[in-house]
Amino acid sequence: MSDAPAKLVCRNVWKVFGARAEDAFARLGHDPAPDRLLAAGLVPAVRAVDLTVKEGEIFVIMGLSGSGKSTLVRCLSRLAEPTAGEILFNGQNLLAASEAEMTQIRRHKMGMVFQHFALLPHLTVLENVAFPLEVQGLPRPAREARAREMIALVGLSGREDSYPRQLSGGQQQRVGIARSLAVEPELWFLDEPFSALDPLIRRELQDEFIRLQSRLKKTIVFITHDFDEAIRLADRIAIMKDGRIEQTGTPEDLVLHPATDYVREFTRAVPKAKAVRVASLMIDAPPPPDAAAIPARATVAEAGSAFLEGATALAVTDPAGRPIGTLHRDDAIRLILGGAA
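-> structure tokens emitted (341 positions)
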């Protein structure tokens, strides 16, 4: 992943609200302090954000309510207009693109899933999933064939003729995911997609999301306020506070090496075993022939049940299921008890 090319790059992105915001902001110069912004009648929602999302990674932006994470993701797709900065998608500056160009980019290269399912109640599951392809002008046989593929992918085969009111909340969100994938997006935005669901359904959809990503290898920007969800899904996480990014890194980086007092407090209650991935703790040696397997991206905490059942070593596997190393119980115990990873 570290060698993957950049898919999305932000440079000094700002979003402020107020009367004649762009003109007022331009008069304040580079990186104005919050008190100067407020004195000018401006309310900052996103402040001086720099980030890079690599091709094929799950990049999670998280923070508490009001931190600016949802405003930022709307700026990234230009559903909200940034006040200043650059946003590069495949090297193209989106802020220089016309509205017509942005419409085509959103229709053909971006997918979006939000907390509220926003399904069209008078359309069936098949028609909802096929709807963005209809907007693209795809002929009916082709769009329905593609929609059926996506419905099968999210595990809803047999529900094509159902209406949203006939589905559970988790099933409705699966339809939303299938609809956003129907256009085969290069970049997939998900803004708190599971937060309206109860915990069991939420966990199930997180599992489904991980399964889908292992097959599709999408570039994903995922917004959440739930740190457990973030460390379970993310390749890297950016933590926001008051419109700024406090720190960006892997879940392990944030928990083991917090860069600011805010990140330290934010991650203080997270057990190391829930953040450290098996791949970081394994040794480069063949596992015992009868060792149970665990994916490299699983956390050490997820390996705990196998060790409780008596295993002394686990076979660590890549996404294709091939063994790539061994995780020993003693190493996991040392981490859980507070040893360094």
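The two ends are 21 Å apart (CA to CA).
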